[in-house]
Each structure stands twice: as C-alpha cells, then as structure tokens.
Amino acid sequence: MKPYQKIQILECGEPLVPIPLEQFAVESPHPYEKLGAPYGDTSPYYLRESVIAALISAQAELQQRHADWRIQIFDAYRPVAVQQFMVDHTFAEVVQSQKLDPDTLSDDQRDVIIQQVYQIWAVPSPNPKTPPPHSTGAAIDLTLVDATGQLIDMGSAIDELSPRSHPDYYVNQPDKPYHEHRQVLRDVMYSAGFCRHPGEWWHFCLGDQMWAWLCNQDNPTVSVTARYGRVAHK
Ligand SMILES: C[C@@H](N)C(=O)N[C@H](C)C(=O)O
Ligand SMILES: [Zn+2]
C-alpha cells in the first residue's frame, strides 16, 4: 500500500462533469482509447466540477506568462477497469521489451516486472478506500503546447517508464530547456491548487488522497483529508 492510500476520504459528492475541451488542446486520438481500453459508456474527458474550474485558472495563469501557450490534456477520468487494462498493457510491453516469453515467466520475474509497472501506474484497487487517483475524477495527466499546437519539449514522453519521468531529472542540465518547461507546468498548476506526483512530471491532482497526502507532507501541522473518492460516470 502506498502511503497516500491511508488518507481518509470524506466524499463531498461534487459531480463529475465534461471538460470544456474547446478551451484546451487535447491529445488526439486519446492514447488509451486508441489501445482499446474499456471505457464502455464513459469517457476520459470528465473531471470533478471544481477541478475543471482550477484547470481553467491554471491555463489563465499560463497565459499570463506565455500568451499563446495552452494546456494539452492527455488523460483525466479513468474507470478502474481502464486502470487495470493499462497496468496489464504496460506489463506486456515490459515483457516484450525484455524479450521474455509471457507464458514461461517465473513468479519472481512477474514480481519484478509488476513492481516496475507500479512505479508509474497506481494499483487498480477495487476497494473504495484506496481508489486509483484517476478514478476519482480529481487527477489529470497533461503537458503544454505552443501557439502552433507544437508540444513544449519536456525531455520525455508522458507515461515513459524511465528515470526521465522524475520531475527533477533534468535539474542539473541547465543547457537544456526541459527543467524550465516542467517548472512552468508545475508553477501554473500549483497556482491553481494542484499538487504534482513526486515521480511523474505530467500527473497533477486536486482533492484526492494523493493531493491530501502531499499537502500533509508540505505542512506536517495540518491533517488534510481527501474530498474525492472513486466515482462512476453516469
Ligand atoms: C502512468 C500515469 N498515466 C498515471 O496516471 N500514473 C498515476 C500514478 C496513476 O496511475 O494514477
Ligand atoms: Zn496520472
């Protein structure tokens, strides 16, 4: 169990609502829909109402600094079934990249690979006390684009299973613009109240267990709880 999963959830009941996609840039086609992830009647382009308001405010802050840059949405709401699908998909990718035979893996090999997968993916827990962050509608994966829709180079791709995903990977490489770009993204998201995943430059949250845990880490005199638990899109 990750430490953030011990945070108490006091669900506030705020609705999951569609993201006004016309206000943002959007990765298209959606990266997990493209892989056949089981969304059923749901869509990744939903978030809690206040999380969307905060995202709009983060983009306004971005445009104070870079008038024609925009936030590009990569992924937002993710049902637990999709979380499971992506964990399984990433597991299969690691097996393939290591040229292993999926049918003859030992238990030890499976354990090592699943731990690698869980370095960047949350466990697809069905327990309402430990929901995957994106299943709460309070987590979002994103990056930035310029006026022409070109990606601002962050030095690695979203979802890359490598040390380059760490937000500070490029901190000691000032000759490259990547750390500065990651800091712009971080600063505008923080200005709207989001927190960033400690191991992923692209994952931000507001009001879920990870966010509450990060708030408590920043200020040990407070005891913040999560206001968003797992939610099903209706
Ligand atoms: C891997 C990335 N897309 C992501 O969202 N990671 C977090 C930790 C998650 O799975 O909730
Ligand atoms: Zn994420």
Automatic annotation (TrEMBL):
The UniProt site entry described as Transition state stabilizer is assigned to R78
Q: Which UniProt keywords apply?
A: Cell wall biogenesis/degradation, Dipeptidase, Hydrolase, Metal-binding, Metalloprotease, Protease, Zinc
User: Among the record's GO biological process terms, what is one?
Assistant: proteolysis
Which Enzyme Commission numbers does its entry carry? 3.4.13.22
List cofactor names only: Zn(2+)
Query: Domain of life here?
Result: Bacteria
- What is the protein name given in its UniProt record? D-alanyl-D-alanine dipeptidase
